[in-house]
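FORM 12-B: Structure-to-Sequence Request
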């Protein structure tokens, strides 16, 4: 199977005619027909219903047309990026983050880098994923680095060989509706959480924050901790008093006039509510973009 075959197939699928596709590509109808027959034989699947005046796609043909179009677009995009890398000094950096909270910190850093390091431009490729996913991707080299929320027992980092830079420290706090009965308390105790629905954000199916949060609470109680997939959903449920949620305090919070924040008491015998946002990366990743960005972060943290 060749790219030319796929391009011809897409032309036929869009135009509904071997002859029109042939005219568009300046080849004979016989050549188009032969290419499509060979393609069907290679795949072992019928792609077309051949009528006297019209060519229609089978269900398999419709699916294959969608995937072929995606494949060619990805190929063209990759070729364009290869030309960018070859033809100029622009560096590339694949960087991930865990949630919109870290995302806002990341954005502020990237904008500042673009402003102060114009002589060392970087094309940032940014991805949002769960912390487990980010650690795995950086470890395997799919990402160059990532911003993660280091909270709870820290076991997720102890078992890796990744290097890290501490970017910002803070404390996890509980957000709740202004009308919630617990608002009257300046500090929330673990027993106050019994019977409450407690939310945490993760755009992927992830138990990291749930496990980290539960590690900070006494283990002789059962707590109802649930994941939500969007910040908007979490904010809405909290504002309506249907749940409470935990947030990283020192990061830019999404303002909501109906939500207030309270500290959660932590016993000295269990993990505290302190967290650190870290940039994680592999020590053997020597690409220039990562070196430039690490030096920039170290300088602004002084």
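FORM 12-B RESPONSE
SEQUENCE OUT:
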């Amino acid at each position: 199977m060749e790219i030319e075959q796929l391009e011809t197939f897409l032309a036929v699928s869009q135009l509904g005619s071997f002859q029109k596709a042939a005219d568009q590509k300046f080849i004979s109808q016989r050549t188009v027909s032969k290419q499509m027959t060979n393609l069907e034989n290679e795949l072992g699947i019928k792609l077309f219903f051949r009528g006297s005046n019209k060519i229609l796609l089978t269900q398999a043909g419709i699916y294959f047309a969608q995937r072929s179009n995606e494949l060619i677009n990805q190929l063209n995009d990759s070729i364009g990026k290869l030309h960018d890398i070859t033809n100029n000094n622009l560096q590339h950096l694949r960087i991930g983050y865990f949630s919109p909270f870290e995302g806002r910190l990341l954005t502020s850093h990237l904008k500042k880098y673009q402003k102060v390091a114009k002589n060392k431009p970087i094309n940032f490729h940014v991805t949002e994923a769960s912390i487990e996913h980010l650690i795995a991707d950086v470890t395997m080299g799919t990402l160059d680095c990532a911003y993660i929320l280091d909270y709870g027992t820290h076991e997720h980092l102890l078992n890796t060989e990744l290097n890290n830079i501490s970017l910002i420290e803070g404390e996890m706090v509980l957000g709740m509706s202004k009308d919630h009965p617990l608002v009257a308390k300046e500090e929330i105790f673990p027993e106050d959480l019994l019977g409450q629905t407690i939310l945490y954000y993760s755009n992927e199916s992830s138990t990291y924050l749930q496990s980290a949060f539960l590690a900070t609470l006494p283990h002789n109680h059962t707590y109802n901790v649930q994941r939500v997939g969007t910040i908007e959903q979490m904010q809405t449920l909290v504002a309506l008093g249907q749940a409470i949620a935990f947030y990283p305090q020192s990061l830019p919070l999404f303002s909501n006039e109906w939500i207030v924040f309270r500290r959660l008491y932590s016993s000295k015998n269990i993990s505290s509510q302190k967290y650190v946002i870290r940039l994680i990366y592999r020590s053997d990743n020597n690409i220039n973009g990562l070196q430039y960005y690490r030096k920039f972060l170290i300088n602004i943290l002084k």
